[in-house]
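As a warm-up, study this chain.
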Amino acid sequence: MGGELRARCATLGRRVRVTVARETVTGGAVDLTPRGHLVVDTPAGRVEVSAGDVLHLRPA
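Now compare it with the structure written out below.
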């Protein structure tokens, strides 16, 4: 993904909770893949999310 899209993305750098079907992923939104998927850094490792409901969390 281009740097301009990353710069405009309000989600990157924030703590998020992403609900995908019956799964919830919580962590820091750290990157976008070339296909536009959100990369979330969780305690269990990085997770690539292609679709889901993203909630911005308050800083810890």
